[in-house]
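Lecture notes, part 5. Sequence design as translation. It can be helpful to think of inverse folding as translation between two languages: the language of shapes and the language of residues. The source text, in structure tokens, appears below.
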């Protein structure tokens, strides 16, 4: 899997659709588990967060489309959202963890 410092300019340069025709994951070198998923068939590019659960399984969560969330701007919405989501899963406070903990 490729990795590079994800900036607005670097993401714009990523080819979409990817020439191989397959999805491509590009990981950020600054924030562990944060990346961009580039479609193999459309022009879609999406921010994703991936982390390991306590039981060893891997969970990938979509943060949102690249064109809707600003990575470098004043609000810098994508990185904080990714970091917040990553911390919630590490602590076990994500919604899916809470749903499993409730008695049925």
């Amino acid at each position: 899997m490729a990795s590079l410092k994800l900036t607005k300019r670097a993401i714009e340069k990523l080819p979409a659709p990817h020439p191989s025709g397959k999805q491509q994951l590009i990981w950020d070198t600054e924030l562990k588990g944060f990346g961009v998923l580039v479609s193999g068939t459309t022009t879609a590019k999406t921010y994703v967060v991936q982390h390991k659960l306590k039981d060893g399984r891997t969970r990938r969560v979509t943060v949102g489309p690249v064109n809707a969330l600003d990575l470098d701007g004043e609000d810098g919405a994508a990185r904080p959202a990714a970091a917040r989501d990553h911390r919630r899963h590490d602590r076990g406070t994500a919604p899916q963890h809470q749903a499993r903990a409730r008695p049925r």
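The translated text above is only one of many valid answers, since several sequences can fold into similar shapes. Residues 2-94 form one domain.
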